[in-house]
Specification:
The protein is mainly alpha-helical. Helices cover 60% and strands 8% of the residues. The protein is built from seven helices and two strands, in the order αααααααββ. Helix 6 crosses helix 7. The longest helix is centred in the N-terminal third of the chain and has 16 residues.
């Protein structure tokens, strides 16, 4: 059974690679049939959605809020602890993305990171700081 499946797979690859016109025409016809059939198209899109981590990921703002909430409840949390928490709650977020978000939250003045040796321990900032990007200074003559 596996040998048969592998042979079919190799044959498909070879036909695709050689740009066999009959094979490509058959493929276009099958694709057209799927796209015009609402039920088949929906089923295919659901399969693609379930197979892709990117379509199931939450936005950065939601992940940032979850990280802030976790660090508020767990002062001194590390990126690894944050990652474990997020994974336990159904989010497969890599350490690089967590580091990027925690750095961003630090730049916004929402998180404080204290580095000890090679590890950074995070806590929530006591006083929210105003981002330099959001600071607007009005001269007295512009307020009239």
């Amino acid at each position: 059974m596996q040998k048969e499946t592998l042979k079919k797979f190799v044959d498909l690859g070879e036909k695709f690679q050689s740009l066999d016109p009959n094979f490509l025409a058959e493929g276009r016809e099958k694709a057209r049939a799927i796209v015009t059939d609402k039920e088949r198209f929906t089923a295919l899109m659901e399969k693609a959605y379930m197979a892709s981590k990117n379509t199931q990921s939450k936005g950065t703002s939601k992940t940032s809020a979850e990280i802030l909430s976790y660090v508020r409840d767990n002062p001194g949390a590390t990126n690894n602890e944050i990652q474990t928490y997020l994974q336990e709650n159904g989010q497969d977020v890599g350490t690089a993305r967590i580091s990027k978000i925690t750095r961003s939250l630090g730049a916004e003045g929402k998180l404080i990171g204290e580095k000890k040796k090679t590890q950074i321990y995070y806590s929530v900032s006591e006083e929210p700081q105003i981002s330099k990007k959001e600071t607007v200074i009005f001269a007295p003559d512009t307020l009239a």
